[in-house]
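>> received
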Amino acid sequence: MSPKLKLKVFASRLLRYFFQGLLILAPIGITALTLYWAFVTIDNLIPKEIIPEDTSFNFLKYKGVGFALVLILVVVVGYLSSSFIIGRIFDLFDHLLERTPFIKYIYTSIKDVFDAFVGEKKKFDHPVLVQVYGLDVWEMGFITQTDVSSLGMEGYMAVYVPHAYAITGKVFIVPKERIKPLENISAGEAMKFAVSGGVTNI
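>> returned
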């Protein structure tokens, strides 16, 4: 084998090994960076720069303390909200925000999104196949409203279709007969399949 051919074979193998390594390390690295970003963001919710030196609160400047305190605060608020009296206070505050001009649009939108994913009234737990663009083309989505007659659309449903490789999506109002429920896969598997562009096995 000539030196030129050997060099070509070596370069080809080197390139193949590079992409194999990238395929292994990229998901790990992106996941680690995402977790690190979330950790730092939550940890920095407590402004450490305003904490004076030589005080009993100086421990708040240590890395991770803010993250732990935020998690504890979230758990405590969740626990207190289960109490009847404290829960009524939270409900009153919630009602006030939902009635405040301008703020109500931001607050209710964010609240509904969180409720859809982790609330007691989860919305993305009914995966379906829906015909939107043609009879032979199916989109994977989730039923968010089974009755949209308030929009003047009798016999229609609201279906949320997530975009691949994004946190966005679109809502389609389609006839019930163009929706096929997916009974053999979970909502999590359906979401992962749709967001991954269909490359994830289900």
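>> The chain is about 50% helix and 15% strand.
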